[in-house]
Amino acid sequence: MSTPQLSVQLYSVRQALEADEDAALARLAALGLTNVEAFGFTHRADELADALARHGLSARTGHAGFLSPDGAGTDLDDVFRAARRLGVEILFDPFVPASRWADEKEIARTAALLNEAAERAAGHGLRVGYHNHSQEFVHTVGGVSAFDRFADLLNPEVALEVDLFWAAAGGNDVVALLGRLGSRVRALHVKDGPVIDDPFTSGAPFDPADTGQVAAGQGQIPLAAALAAAPHAEYAVIEFDHYDGDVFEGIATGISYLKGKGIA
Questions:
Q1: How far from chain centre, in Å, is Cα 154?
Q2: Among candidates 127, 124, 123, 125, which has minimal Cα distance to 114?
């Protein structure tokens, strides 16, 4: 069992980054963070790498969409080169649309695409994986959720990043889910709030403000038990899709919570 490294998904502070990237990164560094999870970097890897370095930050994990049809024109090798420029070690695709989890053939195709991407990524010294939301758990295939079926089709070198809030929204006992996934789980999104219903298959527009997310340790997600159930996780990543109030204060509370669990 290893202790995961503390991190924060930069998407949490996206508005602050857009307003003043250096000021936002400085605030994260002032909270004692040394690691972040990057997003939206594929066309600005050099710029972001320089900005992170100025503030003593590293991006060991990152998000980039490389499994979806809207990325069909994307050169995987360019994406992987950009990730390595940042120092990313594991690159996660963060979202495959709900419609692709309702069809067994599409589930198998998504798994095959990820397996193929893993082979390509290895040539760049990079691992790849998938980050869940809740839509992956709504449908069943052969008596198991679409996500469990997907995970069973992945090659061993493919990593999973389990978003605990969204896994709970998908109807999971998150501790049991982590037990089933075992050593595939290499990162966790430590996200708290109420246990809501999956919003991605409802047909209604998704508004992150409706999620009710709160700082880690203040909601209904069994974070402590989940952390204990993922002994192979290398990263514990704080993330907010939305936060009422100063998101940096929410991150600071999450850092304090995780440090209380021995994660720094």
A1: 17
A2: 127
| Alpha helices, DSSP H, located in 31-145 | 45-54, 76-86, 104-122
Residue that is written with structure tokens 């989940």 in the block: 226
Q: What is the mean pLDDT of the chain?
A: 96
The pTM assigned to this predicted structure is 0.97
HSE of 86, CA atoms in CB hemisphere, 13 A: 33
Query: CA 183 to CA 169: how far, in whole Å?
Result: 22
pLDDT in tens, 164-206: 999 999 999 999 999 999 999 999 999 999 999 999 999 999 9
Measured distance CA(57)–CA(29) in Å, rounded: 7
Q: In one letter, which amino acid is 7? A: S
Residue 189 contacts residue 179 (beta carbons within 8 Å): no
- Domains of the chain, earliest start first: 5-260 (3.20.20.150)
Q: What is d(CA 66, CA 52) in angstroms, rounded to the nearest whole number?
A: 23
Give CA–CA dist 146/142, Å, rounded: 9
Query: How would you label 146-181 residue by residue, b for 16+ Cβ within 10 Å and e otherwise?
Result: bbbbbbeebeeebbbbbbbbbbbbbebebbebbebb
Euclidean distance between CA atoms 60 and 83, whole angstroms: 9
195, exposed or middle or buried, with CB in 10 Å at 0-12, 13-18, 19+? middle
Using an 8 Å Cβ cutoff, are 255 and 31 in contact?
yes
